[in-house]
Specification:
- InterPro entries: Uricase (IPR002042), Uricase_CS (IPR019842).
- This is Uricase.
- Belongs to the uricase family.
- There is one protein chain.
- By secondary structure, the protein is of the alpha+beta class.
- The chain contains five helices and twelve strands.
- The strands form three sheets. Strands 1-2-3-6-7-8-9-12 form an eight-stranded antiparallel sheet. It has a two-stranded antiparallel sheet with strand order 4-5. A two-stranded antiparallel sheet has the order 10-11.
- β1 and β2 form a beta hairpin.
- The longest helix has 18 residues.
- The protein is globular.
């Protein structure tokens, strides 16, 4: 029986970087969490500890900082593509790179009715994300967002489900529907205005969530993905993960009050987790860009 090394990668995880552009008195900031992973001819380092093809993870970290200084970061997809192509083109024995970036949003603090030139506030935990895979001379971009918390105070029902002796959940035709959206979408090209596309896709998903009279969170998931694909031909597929942030009606009968879907208890766990992919049937299947490791 032979034993061999399987799919593998290595890199530097969660390089936190804040870059301030001071070209004008009105500063801009980019607040990122960057992770890099490299793949290639790495058998020797696993089998014998030969590091000749093993670019140090510390060098990868330093490259992130240096690239942020040498040129404006721009859109996170563009920054990730530059980093990935650099590692593949310059690192001995490396044939593939994967760069993951989370971007934290900051808003200008309003002063005198206008945003301040160099003072900012974080008003949300939402993050913009990208996962760029460079494989030789090919590149794939998967962008998205996470921790986008949304809520509908009505326009949501849940009934008609199977029931057995363990079922205690009551059917309802009026409930709060809330979730923290994690979405990823695969682009068909790397030659795009990524910032414009991101803002439009985000707005499309929010509108779909708001306007869909939902009989199940699964239905909302499908509508969110479908409407993105209908409006954005540059997107091949959308993957969504939607935890159901349950809001349970409080029984106020103990004090002779009628609760007409107005007072709820917000439970953080356990929670339903609804996940799915909405895709075009006329495009190639997802490449390695979706995966942390090369496919088996």
């Amino acid at each position: 029986m032979g034993i061999a090394m399987g799919p593998n990668q290595y890199g530097k995880a969660e390089v936190r970087i804040v870059s301030v552009n001071k070209d004008t008195p009105r500063h801009t900031i980019k607040d990122l969490n960057v992770s890099t992973s490299l793949r290639g001819d790495l058998d020797a380092v696993h089998y014998t500890g030969d590091n000749s093809n093993c670019l140090p993870t510390d060098t990868q970290k330093n490259t992130v900082y240096a690239f942020a200084k040498e040129a404006p970061i721009g859109e996170i997809e563009e920054f990730a593509l530059r980093l990935g192509r650099h590692f593949v083109d310059t690192a001995h024995g490396i044939t593939g790179a994967r760069v993951l970036i989370d971007e934290y949003s900051w808003e200008r603090i309003p002063v005198g009715g206008a945003g301040h030139d160099h003072s900012f506030a974080r008003s949300t935990d939402e993050k913009r994300t990208t996962a760029v895979t460079v494989d030789g001379d090919r590149a794939h971009v998967v962008s998205g967002l996470k921790d986008l918390i949304v809520l509908k105070s009505t326009g949501s029902e849940f009934w008609g489900y199977p029931k057995d002796k363990y079922t205690t959940l009551a059917e309802t035709n009026d409930r709060i529907l809330a979730t923290a959206v994690t979405a990823r979408w695969r682009y068909l090209s790397t030659d795009l205005d990524f910032g414009k596309s991101f803002e439009s896709i985000r707005a499309t998903m929010l509108e779909a969530f708001a306007t869909t009279h939902s009989l199940a969170l699964q239905q909302s998931l499908y509508e969110m993905g479908k409407q993105v694909l209908e409006a954005h031909p540059e997107v091949a597929e959308v993957r969504l993960s939607l935890p159901n942030k349950h809001h349970f009606l409080v029984d106020l009968s103990y004090c002779d009050l009628e609760n007409n879907n107005e007072v709820f208890f917000a439970a953080d766990r356990p929670y339903g987790l609804i996940e799915g992919t909405v895709l075009r049937d006329d495009v190639d299947p997802a490449p390695q860009a979706w995966y942390s490791l090369p496919e088996f």
